[in-house]
Amino acid sequence: MTLPGSLLQSVTPFAIRLHREFRGVTVREGLLICGPSGWGEFAPFDDYGDEHSGRWLASALEAAYGDWPQAKRESVNVNAIIPAVTAEVASVLVRDVVMNDGCTTIKVKVTGDLSADEERISATRDALDAVLGLGVGRIRIDANACWSRQEAVIALRRLAGYGLEYVEQPVESNEDLRAVHSEINVPIAVDESIRKNKNLDAAAMRELVEIADVAIIKPAPVGGVWRAMEIADLVKLPVVVSNGMESSVGLCSALALAAALDIDRACGLGTGKLLATDVIAQSLVPHQGLMKVQRVAPDPEAMSAAQALIDPTRAKFWLDRLERAWQSAAAKPWHEKVEA
Predict the structure, then answer these.
(1) How would you list the strands of the sheet with 38-42, edge to edge?
(2) Rounded Cα–Cα distance for residues 71 and 62 (Å)
(3) Fewest beta carbons less than 10 Å away: which of 162, 200, 250, 284?
């Protein structure tokens, strides 16, 4: 193994459970990394290749060994998230996050099953209107590029009547985004177009201005908070900060980014409500629609349970993945500091 001993000694494999399936998973796994600055989280989804995983590692090392920009606020306005559940469950979840957590912006996952998606969105709108008043609550939907160009246009013309703030990544390619953007009135936000972009350079970010209205930026998939700040400056679009369904430790990086930027919209950071277990005693969740900007460290009892949950073969999988990510271009700037 080519990993420095100091790094190997600082990593802890973990697994945490979700309340219900989200993006095809019911358990989130990864590695926590302890360094002189605090704790970082390396948890790229399985479909990320080594170079993209290297960005996640750079973000984790930044948290553990580096620093974050100066915060401009102490708390961040956030949205709640409704997974791909039935309309009945969606209604219950929306009332909970509005009445108990104070969230007034809801992100609803869509799957491409237009009938079920519409029922879920309709139930969300009805619940928001019932609790907050007609049209007060905001709905944004996240498609994760589940539609073709034609499907996106058909779906969004049908769903626009529910008062959508925006649709996140309706289609995958920039060409299709351009076409959909020209045919619908619903604003488009881009997520995968940023976090899965190979270069993340100025030219690629400038192109997004022509095909989208909002940029979704997640610090872990782009290489950390400082790199995300650079991308926010390059993209020249209103920014919404989101995260990759990390534990509460990983969520802190996204909170740091949101606090360092001038952002008016609610950020996609209310993911703690989706976690059934965590690496801290109580997951970070919204209060009165806000989340406190902070760093957290694992709770010993919660961390012990998270370690016990991960299978030994999966723990080895993560250590092997860490070694490959360590060799990536994104992680190499951290070698000297980690090895010092």
Answers:
(1) 11-22, 25-35, 38-42
(2) 16
(3) 162
| Cα dist from 266 to 81, 138, 143, 193, 315, whole Å | 12, 10, 18, 20, 35
CATH topology classification for 5-67+299-339: Enolase-like; domain 1 (3.30.390)
Please give the structure tokens belonging to residue 134: 């007609």
Q: Enter the pTM of the model.
A: 0.96
- Those residues whose C-beta lies under 8 Å from the C-beta of residue 280, and which sit 6 or more positions away, are 247, 248, 249, 296, 297, 298, 299, 302
Contact 48, 78 (CB under 8 A): no
Q: Please tell me the distance from the alpha carbon of residue 206 to that of residue 213, in angstroms, as a whole number.
A: 12
Is 78 in a helix, a strand, or coil?
strand
Nearest to 261 by CA among 287, 235, 297: 235
Taken in order 131, 132, 134, 139, the sign of the CA dihedral is: negative
DSSP for residue 245: S
278-300: per-residue pLDDT in tens? Answer: 999 999 999 999 999 999 999 99
Give the position of tokens 């709108």: 125
Written as six digits, the tokens of 250 are: 């990983």
Q: Which residues are annotated as catalytic?
A: 109, 218
Beta bridge partners of 40: 33
